[in-house]
Specification:
Blueprint (H helix, E strand, L loop, with lengths): L7 E6 L5 E9 L12 H11 L1 H9 L3 H4 L2 E7 L2 E9 L3 H13 L4 H15 L5 H8 L13 H6 L2 H11 L5 E7 L3 H11 L21 E5 L5 E9 L3 H16 L4 E11 L2 E10 L1 H5 L1 H13 L2 H19 L3 H8 L8 H10 L3 E6 L3
Parallel strand pairs: 1-5, 6-10
Antiparallel strand pairs: 2-4, 2-5, 3-4, 7-9, 7-10, 8-9
């Protein structure tokens, strides 16, 4: 259902579930972050979750632990929010907790704790920020939602407050509910809890920047490393991830190359894939040739890669439907879709770009 204010609520009954889950998510988020605030959605999601104990004590008169609740942040390239899970008997209080924690501005201690944890996450993928900036200079969060260490450290509470005013609005809100409670009853209750949220404006499509430079060099202590990047028209995120996985396996078979991580996605009509490598100096010098050979190796199977990715996505969604926690999170996200085969073929035919990092001298 969609409320008069514009909040989209999806509820599904799981008759035998002993627990319920409520996910509150706001569209846009990382995909709309400019470089100075790259990571603000990641901090907002984590701070909202960390601030829940204060909300429970102040508004419900008990602790999250006493309620038997579990609170987690939600974050992906297209949105952010929180997930609250707990006993079915407390479903109404849990719904109150989820909507209030998502809408309420977090306190200073929650923000600082969230900042520290988010910076730690951002450091786990060397060169991820640089690759995101290369692929999407105006909105790097649409590739790397965890944020940039420098911008995460520079953000202050006023930045978060300004960001939240544009994001925490009914027009961008999606609420997912899963549990043994009748779906209509749960949806009506959630509609009442969100009826005072400001209307705001829906997320608008943001055109992608031009293709990244063919070669970008960096002096970094993590070197020698490189990120191979592909970008092409496409709309199937799961297929883009499937292409990244296949490219990573093929590149890992090349001499002197070790895959560090890979990622892929799609938004606003464009797909992207990245594979980060640690490489011997000779292999780094010959990376374009290694990449061309690795892509040729898998080129005969574009459709098979796409079909496998689509099948994995269907299996994932079937698994998500089995439990309240995963189902609520799934219901709060836009339904996946797109042309998997066209996405994989587009990426496979794109000219890759390279981000190379060597140890600074």
């Amino acid at each position: 259902m969609r409320t008069e204010q514009g909040v989209r609520i999806a509820a599904r009954r799981l008759p035998d579930a002993a627990r319920v889950a409520i996910a509150v998510r706001f569209d846009g988020g990382p995909a709309r972050e400019t470089p100075p605030v790259h990571g603000v959605s990641a901090i907002s999601a984590r701070a909202a979750a960390l601030g829940c104990p204060e909300v429970a004590a102040a508004e419900l008169g008990e602790s999250v632990l006493a309620m038997g609740a579990r609170v987690s942040p939600l974050l992906d390239t297209e949105g952010w929010g929180i997930l609250v899970e707990g006993p079915s008997a407390r479903w109404a209080s849990l719904a109150h907790l989820a909507t209030r924690c998502a809408a309420r501005s977090p306190g200073a201690s929650a923000i600082e704790a969230a900042r520290a944890a988010t910076i730690a996450d951002a450091r786990r993928r060397p060169l991820a920020t640089e690759a995101a900036v290369a692929l999407a200079p105006r909105a790097p969060g649409r590739v790397h939602p965890a944020g940039d260490v420098a911008s995460l450290g520079a953000l202050d509470p006023a930045d978060l407050s300004r960001w939240r005013r544009t994001q925490v609005v009914a027009a961008r809100a999606r609420v997912g509910f899963a549990g043994a409670i009748p779906a209509g009853r749960a949806a009506e209750h959630l509609a009442r809890l969100t009826r005072d949220w400001p209307l705001g404006t829906a997320r608008e499509a943001l055109p992608w920047d031009a293709a990244p430079e063919a070669l970008t060099a960096r002096g970094r202590p993590e070197g020698p490393m490189a990120v191979v990047m592909w970008s092409a028209p496409g709309d199937a995120a799961a297929a883009a991830r499937g292409f990244a996985d296949a490219a990573a396996r093929s590149l890992a078979a090349e001499p002197g190359i070790e895959v560090a991580w890979q990622a892929g996605g799609a938004s606003d009509g464009r797909a992207w894939a990245t594979v980060a490598l640690r490489a011997e100096p000779d292999a780094l010098d010959a990376l374009p040739a290694h990449t061309a050979r690795a892509v040729r190796t898998i080129a005969h199977g574009w459709d098979a890669i796409a079909d496998a990715a689509a099948a994995e996505e269907r299996e994932r969604r079937a698994w998500e439907a089995a439990g309240p926690r995963s189902l609520a999170a799934s219901l709060s996200r836009p339904a996946p879709g797109g042309d998997a085969r066209a996405t994989v073929r587009g990426l496979g035919g794109a000219t890759p770009a390279f981000l190379v990092a060597r140890p600074a001298r």
